[in-house]
TrEMBL record:
The keyword Iron does not apply. K(+) binds at T109, T110, G219, T312, T313, N429. This is Trk system potassium uptake protein TrkH. PANTHER family: TRK SYSTEM POTASSIUM UPTAKE PROTEIN TRKG-RELATED (PTHR32024:SF2). It is a multi-pass membrane protein. Belongs to the TrkH potassium transport family. InterPro entries: Cat_transpt (IPR003445), TrkH (IPR004772).
Length: 479
């Protein structure tokens, strides 16, 4: 185990986190909020600890998958602990467990909250919550790789693999740092375009900034208790479109950027992603129209909510707890499917769902024709045994963790719909669930134990399970 590199990377993460706190500090100065002093204290603390950890560069710069996973897992935990301190120091979220839950929900782009009244918070704290979505959306390690020449060279690919959502990660351009820079250029460009469109629609600049951060990171923290319900249809449509765009594999935009549009539009995962979305919207619109209301009105809310849930953003324009059971079942299904690999969205990922379905089809064909030789393909390439083993190991671990979490959370005595959707919403990084944790409710009623379990689920879900699990494996720490 290359402890020196792990220490150095965590130190870099803390220094970058101190830098990121300048934005809520600026908001505190603009709006003259004394709670902004908490960010000054926390930034100095992050900077001091980070400097101590990264003062001495590691002698051994080579590290592999194990070090990459451990660095990412520990980095996100440390970042979350330090990131929650402004809430605690300012007294706006006095409970440390609640503060940890809130900031983990932010960094993991979940959007689940323990706050009963969001509008009572100071603006600098609201901005920090939403900005944490933007930081966590693409990944803090990807951000660091883009701005800092970390020790490790091409071995830094292990960091990107451990942090980026989806079954596989590869370099888009020959050099890894150039890949990270390219990803952030695309990410920043889309963020700016959305911000401009929201301001054109007369959304207040502060609201537009927070909503854009939440949409880009597919997080979903709002600045109003009604989430997106109080904004105009135009603003809701813009948000719907960009939620879907940020749920697309960023390789698609890379190919468009480098004038390979034919390759981009031939991406199998992207086609499935939009096919699933529009099918869900059509079915929910039909279900809602049978219950009552105009078809265009129902289509508008179905399109928004399907995009919000499938991309794991978590905004809402209406209380979908009141929708027909069929529509709620579709939303619950979309929670598990999630967005594309290589996007800022969560969930199991569309690419894995495609592989699972094709694997079932292959096994059925083998039963009928035992001597036939069939291969599973994705994006025109054969899915090798290593990839198949990885995606099925992911599913096995996913189911075990989900069941264990559900059992623990059920100790609090809520109904099955609430508990099941609470675990689904946090594990898949969605945000609101159903029942007592629906879009007009929050997670504050859960016990300390349940909040800790759900916080761990958010981290496990965002980091694709294995980086966190490796922390608890005794073999990880053996020489």
């Amino acid at each position: 185990m290359n402890y020196g590199s792990i220490r150095y990377i965590i130190g870099c993460i803390l220094k970058v986190e101190a830098l990121l706190m300048l934005l809520p500090m600026a908001a505190a100065v603009i709006y003259r909020e004394r709670s902004g002093l908490a960010f000054v204290v926390c930034a100095l603390l992050c900077l001091g600890v980070g400097t101590l950890l990264s003062l001495k560069k590691p002698k051994k710069t080579t590290y592999y998958a194990k070090e990459g996973y451990i660095s990412v897992a520990l980095g996100w935990i440390v970042m979350s602990i330090m990131g929650c301190l402004p809430f605690v120091f300012s007294g706006e979220i006095p409970s440390f467990v609640d503060a940890v839950f809130e900031i983990i929900s932010g960094f993991t782009t979940t959007g689940a909250s323990i706050l009963p009244d969001v509008e009572a918070m100071s603006r600098c704290m609201l901005l920090w919550r939403s900005f944490s979505h933007w930081v966590g959306g693409m990944g803090v390690l990807v951000f660091i790789l883009a701005i800092l020449p970390l020790a490790g060279g091409e071995h830094n690919l292990q960091l990107m693999k451990a942090e980026s959502p989806g079954p596989s990660v590869s370099k888009l351009v020959p050099k890894l740092r150039a890949t990270a820079i390219t990803l952030y250029k695309i990410y920043l460009g889309m963020t700016i375009i959305m911000l401009i469109l929201l301001i054109i629609g007369r959304m207040p600049v502060f609201d537009a900034l927070c909503i854009t951060f939440g949409t880009a990171g597919t997080g979903g923290f709002g600045v109003l208790n009604s989430s997106m319900g109080s904004y105009s249809p135009y603003l809701q449509v813009v948000t719907t479109v960009f939620m879907m765009l940020f749920g697309v594999n960023f390789s698609f935009y890379f190919l468009i950027l480098y004038r390979k549009a034919k390759d981009a539009f031939s991406m199998e995962e992207v086609r499935w992603y939009f096919a699933i979305y529009f099918s869900a919207v059509f079915l929910m619109t039909a279900s809602l129209t049978v219950q009552g209301g105009g078809i265009l009105h129902n289509f508008h809310h179905a399109a928004f909510q399907a995009a919000s849930v499938m991309t794991t953003t978590g905004y809402s324009t209406t209380d979908f707890n009141l929708w027909p059971s069929f529509s709620k079942a579709i939303l619950l299904t979309l929670m598990f499917i999630g967005a594309c690999a290589g996007s800022t969205g969560g969930g199991i990922k569309v690419s894995r769902v495609i592989i699972y379905m094709k694997s079932v089809k292959k096994e059925m064909a083998a039963l009928i024709h035992p001597r036939s030789v069939k291969v599973t393909k994705l994006e025109g390439k054969v899915v090798d045994d290593t990839m198949l083993r990885s995606v099925f190991a992911f599913l096995s671990a996913y189911l075990v963790i989900f069941v264990v979490s559900l059992l623990v959370v059920s100790l609090d005595g809520f109904d099955l719909e609430t508990n099941f959707s609470a675990v689904a919403a946090t594990f898949n990084n969605i945000g609101p669930g159903l029942g007592a944790v629906g879009p007009v409710s929050n997670f504050s009623a859960y016990s300390v134990l349940s909040k800790l379990v759900l916080s761990l689920d958010m981290l496990i879900g965002r980091l694709e399970i294995f980086p966190i699990l490796l922390l608890f494996a005794p073999s990880t720490w053996k020489k």
